[in-house]
Amino acid sequence: MNMKAVFLDAQSLTDLNLETLSQCFNNFTAYDATSPHEVADRVRGADVIIVNKVVLDSDTLASNPSLKLICVVATGVNNVDLEAARSQGIAVFNCQAYGVPSVVQHTFSLMLALQTNLLSYHQAVQAGEWQKSTQFCLLDFPIRELSGKTLGLIGSGNLGQGVAEIAKAFGMKVIIGARPGTAPTEGRVALAELYRQADVISLHCPLTEQTENLINADVFNQMKPEAILINVARGGIVNEADLADALRKGKIAGAATDVLISEPPTSDNPLLVGDIPNLIVTPHSAWGSIEARQRILDQTIENVKAFRAGDTLRRIV
User: Fold this and answer.
1) Catalytic choice (179, 188, 204, 284)
2) Is 204 a catalytic site residue?
3) All structural domains of the chain with their residue ranges
4) Chain-centre distance of CA 263, in angstroms?
5) pLDDT of residue 181
6) Which one, of 253, 132, 136, 152, lies nearest residue 202 by Cα?
7) Angle of helix 118-126 relative to helix 100-115, nearest 10 degrees?
8) Active site residue 263
9) Is 308 a catalytic residue?
């Protein structure tokens, strides 16, 4: 099957070898990034579009009758008009569970950094505080163990389960919150109970109407003052202004987030000012290990082969 393919936003994978992917097609073009006004020209005449975050709306799909396949190099497919794809007979495949080890590792990197005050100690050494110490060590910042603490998970899919497994190895008790808007069931506690019990709350749920602004000022008022919050899920689940306020007022002990509502963030984001204590922000990098990104590439190649063979592996539409 002769196929012309275009990869619209390959920038997050360009340090990997794309040769094996390109060999799947007779004609393959990869762009680091594509702005909205460039999409129509770049996808014209393509049989296959490979995309990460670039929006493919109904007009774009309707303007390309040759289009047969869309490969999303991510799990989320909200940037593709799936109904338009379905009505035009365009297959849509995504990547799944590729980043579990990477995100779980990042979750505990953040959790451990907060519980050990790692950044504060590093900065103190850089500032010469250890050199001025009257004893062999520096213990200016509280250090708390994970062992014996309660981890509250909101979201218990592959990522949540992966975090739970490692948490138990640290000796933590794990509780799982009920889905927002639903009553607790066997194995899941009410969210209000989770907020009160947890020493660490870790978010691994999608951003939906039910989870948007889920973690807000009311939740911070219910949490333990020594509790910490980890968000490696999606921006928008946590109210950013409320989080900044809670940290400044000491309502919780710390927080770390890998995601923000707007990405890349704007300069006026309330979490990117310099006066918020015990906050770690990483640039949506939890998923981005070399191994995880190679799995994305491998899965995309598998998806192309599955499409050609008529298989439904990871097929969304």
Assistant:
1) 284
2) no
3) 4-98+290-309, 99-281
4) 12
5) 87
6) 152
7) 60
8) yes
9) no
Q: Which of 178, 107, 144, 126 is nearest to 253 (CA)?
A: 144
pLDDT of 131 strictly over 80: yes
Q: Could you read off the pLDDT of 23-69 as tens digits, one per residue?
A: 999 999 999 999 999 999 999 999 999 999 999 999 999 999 999 99
- From the list 145, 226, 263, 291, the catalytic residue is 263
Domain covering 4-98+290-309: architecture: 3-Layer(aba) Sandwich (3.40)
Whether CATH 3.40.30.10 fits 99-281:
no
Nearest to 204 by CA among 246, 179, 234, 168: 234
Q: What is the reported pLDDT for 298? A: 98
Rounded Cα gap, residues 243 and 224, in angstroms: 14
Marked catalytic residue, from 106, 188, 234, 314: 234
To the question of pTM greater than 0.85 for the whole model, the response is yes
Contact 213, 236 (CB under 8 A): yes
